[in-house]
Structure formats: C-alpha cells, structure tokens
Amino acid sequence: MIKILRSKINGSITVPSSKSIMQRAIAISLLSNRKIILKNISFCEDSNNSINVIKKFGKKIIIDENNIVIDGKIEGIPNEINCGESGLCVRMFTPIISLFSKKIKVNGKGSILKRPVGFFESTLKELGVGFKCNNNFLPLEVKGPIKFNKCLVDGSISSQFLTGLLIALPNKKNDTIVEVKNLKSKGYIDMTLKIMKDFGVNILNENYKKFFINGNQKYKRDFYTIEGDWSSAAYFLVAGAISESIEVHGLNINSKQPDKNIINILKEVGANVEVGNEVVKVKKNELRAFTYDSSDSPDLFPVLVVLAAFCEGKSIIYGVNRLLYKESNRAKVIFEEFSKIGIKINIDGNKMEVFKSEIKNGFINTHNDHRIAMAAAIAGINSNTNIILDNKECVNKSYKMFWDDYKKVGGKIE
Ligand SMILES: O=C(O)C1=C[C@@H](OP(=O)(O)O)[C@@H](O)[C@H](O)C1
Ligand SMILES: C=C(OP(=O)(O)O)C(=O)O
C-alpha cells in the first residue's frame, strides 16, 4: 500500500531505458553468434524475464554497472521458458524459439495467464510448427523448426507476435513472405525494423501488409545503446504540465518509440514544452481539452486520462478496444478506479470521454497494473487530500525507480 499526498512537482529526472528496445536487443543477441555489449540497460522485471529466457539457452550474461555483456553460443535448447508477466517476452520469443527443432513449453505468471495466445496458432501451423495452448491461454508448446516460407499474421490483438517473427525469420535458410492483416501498434513494428537494421538485417515491406524477409541474414553488431523510455517519461512530463515544472533527461528526440507522441499532445493542450538535446522540459499552463487516437500508442492511455482530467472541457481518447488484453482490462480498470477519485469518464465503444475533474481522495485497486499505478500517482499530485494505492511494487514491471524519481521531484508519499 502507498499513500499519495498532494504535492508540487519541480525538478529533473533521467528516464530508465526502454524495456521494449532492451527486450528486442536481448532476443537478437540470442540469435547472434557474436559477443554483444548492451549499454544503458533496463533493469525492470520485463527485461529480466527476457534475460532469463536467453540464459536458458546457455547464453552467458555479465552485468557490469549500466552495461550487459551477452556472450557464448547457444549451448542447449531448454524444455521450458518462463516469461513472467511480460506480453512482449511471450509473443516475441514464441516464434523465435520455433526456429529450433525441439518441443519447448512457454509459461508465465500473473496477468499474462489471462492474455490470449491462441492467435499464434494458424500462423505457426502455416510455417510447419507444431503448436498447442491451454484454450487460448498459457502454457503453450511449440515444436519447430520453421519449415515453410509463407504465412498470414493477424495483427489485430497485438503487434508483438509479428515483432518476434520478423526477428526470427532472417535466421532461416530460405526467404519468407509474411502477409499481415489488421495490424495495430504499427509504430512498434517500426521500432523492430529499426533495431534489426541497426544490427545489419534488412526487411522490406509493402505498407505493413506484406513483409519480404530474406533468409540467411546475420545479426552483426557488437555494441548497442538502449534508448531512454518515452512511455516512462510520459508520466513525469504530464506531472510537469499539471503541477509546476519538470525536466526529463535521457530521451532520444528522433526515437521511433510511439509514446514519443506525448510531446505533441502536451503542446496541443497548451503546456509549455521545450525540446532540447536528449531533454524535454515541461511547465504548467492553462490546459485545454484534446482529441487523440491512442490505438497505436496504447501504453499512453492511462496517463492521457489523467492529463485530460486537468484540461478545460471534454477530451476524447480513441483506442479503448486496444486496452482489453494488457496487464489488466485497462479501459474497465481506468473507468472503475479513476472514477473513484473523481475523474469523470464515459466510455462509448472505442471512445473514452474525459471531463475536467476535481481529484478527490479514494482507494485505487491497481489490479497489479504498473501503468494504472503510475498514472494514479500523477493524478494524486493535485488531489484534495490523498489517494491510496493497494500495490506499489507493480511499477517494477517497467520502471523500478518510479517512486524514487517521484520523491526526487517533490512527489509526497507515505
Ligand atoms: O512491442 C512492444 O514493445 C510493445 C507493443 C505494444 O503492444 P501491442 O502490440 O500488443 O499493442 C505495447 O502496448 C507494449 O507495451 C510494448
Ligand atoms: C502492455 C505492456 O507490456 P507487455 O504487453 O509487454 O506486457 C505495457 O508495458 O504496458
């Protein structure tokens, strides 16, 4: 439990590195024969889950301050991997481990056990991979190798499975054509293609509908620096806009991360935003309502609801349907829990309307969802009295130092 007290936010933080980029780099390291040094690494639980997966294949890992050295060849194929609560870990590694000709079980814990995996089946079967799951859920089992050269992916639930396929397929001997229907979170596929290109592997695509993957490509790079995380930055940037001021360091302004869009949203609502080299400064101002489609940047949704609660008028956020299969059913949790602290919300199909609201005291059940906890903590800055969260540790999934950074810039907690 943690009590969030009314406070004033002022100061500067450096964001943790992106777990999305870190996990992709770890997956690539599994398929590379080289010693790879990742710099500015992320220490959150999701990243640790991916590190544990490649350790199971015999990869040697040395963590040295902010860097990680990944060395050694694949020494054995495990019978089972465990991805903890990370959706990316499950969905990305399933196609990757399908490259190996052994039956491998994929398991996880907590919320991931309620997130669907059945949509992998038709694609993997087209590729000649054996697949079984537990009525659409984990544990699942794959039996590779990938034998065939053509498949169709349904991208409507998540882009993460396509990310894994794209990382895996250049490792095959033959070329592959992947057709994709209804792809969501396209920006995350741009991130995947960018990191693959940085490691020397190129893939062509036609409008995200058809991907042409040449086989026999090798990941060849020895050092890689993980970018700062825009998803984590968004909480503190919003805090600056609704309280006093903030400086967030460690951000790549030219990043492919979809959540970089927070800058444009803050500018649109009227916050004072200054973008420098690797730093963004935000100061409070009169804020006006906004309309934003969060379908392709779903992780911004909870903190955008909090921002909207401080904007004059009615804000509209699209992309409710994309929140169904996250760590919680996020739209439902946002509605139920944020209403308790006075945020006025209507849901109409894929659209959420949020009205300027007076934040009052209340008890929030985070449903063990890091993004609900962090967004609620930002709302609590301007609450009348205080907000209590049932679980403070859930932030560790993406942002281990969240509460330290929160206190550092003046956030009061007990
Ligand atoms: O590829 C990634 O790193 C991610 C993709 C998104 O998921 P979906 O593709 O399921 O929307 C995002 O919500 C998730 O937090 C991270
Ligand atoms: C949904 C998230 O991550 P994942 O899908 O990788 O569990 C998230 O970080 O908000």
TrEMBL record:
Q: Which GO terms describe its cellular component?
A: cytoplasm
Q: Which GO terms describe its molecular function?
A: 3-phosphoshikimate 1-carboxyvinyltransferase activity
Under which EC number(s) is this enzyme classified? 2.5.1.19
From the Swiss-Prot or TrEMBL record, state where the protein is found: Cytoplasm
Give the annotated active site. D299
Q: InterPro entries under this entry?
A: Enolpyruvate_Tfrase_dom, Enolpyruvate_Tfrase_sf, EPSP_synthase, RNA3'P_cycl/enolpyr_Trfase_a/b
Q: Signal sequence span per UniProt?
A: none
Broad EC category: transferase
The UniProt similarity line reads: Belongs to the EPSP synthase family.
- Name of the protein in its database record: 3-phosphoshikimate 1-carboxyvinyltransferase
- Report the source organism: Tepiditoga spiralis
Its ancestry begins with: Bacteria, Thermotogati, Thermotogota, Thermotogae, Petrotogales
